[in-house]
Amino acid sequence: MEAGERKRRMDAGCAAFNRGEFYEAHEHWEDVWNEVDDPDRRWVQGMIQVATGLHKLQRFRSDVCATLLAKALGKLHDVPAVLDGFEVGALRAEAERVLAAIGRGERPDPASVVLHCSKAD
User: Tens digit of pLDDT for each residue in 19-43?
Assistant: First the structure.
């Protein structure tokens, strides 16, 4: 995948994510995931799992969300702070926060998770 196409798809996924359209974000990022190699492939898969987990949380499936976030955190354990201009390190911290809240029996608001774009691309 050419760099420009990867950026376009990653940006589209980020925009969808930040609108709370987590399933759509997953779809955009999956296009990238299908084309890249490790370690980026693993990190993008972690982003996909965070988005899918939040999608499930929107549908009151905290149990499925927790499973997906745990899997995502395993893939994002060594992600750089910034990947493709996105603060994925901060996304990992947000996934940890949501997972901990679910573990306490809470239902966090999926819209409280935002993926920030870094100026250092």
Answer: 999 999 999 999 999 999 999 999 9
Q: Averaged over 68-72, what is the pLDDT?
A: 98
- Quote the DSSP letter at residue 76: S
The CATH label, of 1.10.3450.10, 3.30.1490.20, 3.10.450.50, 1.10.760.10, for the domain at 3-112 is 1.10.3450.10
Count of residues making up the chain: 121
Judged by DSSP in three states, 2 sits in coil
Give residue 116's identity as a one-letter amino acid code.
Answer: H
The rounded distance, in Å, linking the Cα atoms of 103 and 7 is 35
pTM above 0.85, yes or no: yes
